[in-house]
Amino acid sequence: MTVDALNLYMKINVPKLTGEQQHPVDLRPHAVRNFDFAMVP
Amino acid sequence: MVFLSGHGMTGPSGDYYFVSYNAKMESKRGRLLPVRATSVPGSEFTNALKLLSGNALFFFDTCFAGDATESGLDYNKLINGVAGKANAIVFASSTGAELSHERATIGSTAPSPRRCSMAWLEAPTTTTMAR
Questions:
Q1: What's the rounded Cα separation, in Å, for the pair A21 and B83?
Q2: What is residue B3's three-state secondary structure?
Q3: Residues of A with CB under 8 A from a CB of B
Q4: For helices B76-85 and B42-50, what crossing angle results, to 10°?
Q5: Among A6, A7, B8, B81, who pairs with B62 as Cys (CB 3.0-4.6 Å)?
Q6: Structure-model confidence comparison of residues A23 and B81, the more confident one
Q7: Is ipTM > 0.90 here?
């Protein structure tokens, strides 16, 4: 799983889970590129 | 990877404190704040992340996680400190105008997992996320 993939998942699913009451926010320094951080078995 | 899920609050100068289950509270200048020895200030997270040579992921799920609010809770100082001084990517559970909700069972007084935290944890196992 990449950082961008997790962001996308959260931005789609958390508003649904919370009835549009909650919208996640992400903040990434410009120097940090997208990268894998978890492996799905 | 730092995963912060629970209760947080800010002091008069905007300093963040993670308030644990057994934190003791005291009144300072008319505000109820956690006793230092029983809470974790945001500076400790920032300093620990700065020591890392690689990238860090900082998951932050407390009320009003994404921004300042009119209620006196201002987590910008912590978030900007983490993102600005360390190679850390911040995932906040909500915008500043929103509460971060727990997945409480109606009628239950037991602590409940937070909805955004659960989504973070479930994401890697979701079939649509698998490559």
A1: 25
A2: strand
A3: 1, 3, 5-7, 9-10, 13-14, 17-18, 21-29, 31-32, 35, 37-38, 40
A4: 10
A5: B8
A6: A23
A7: no
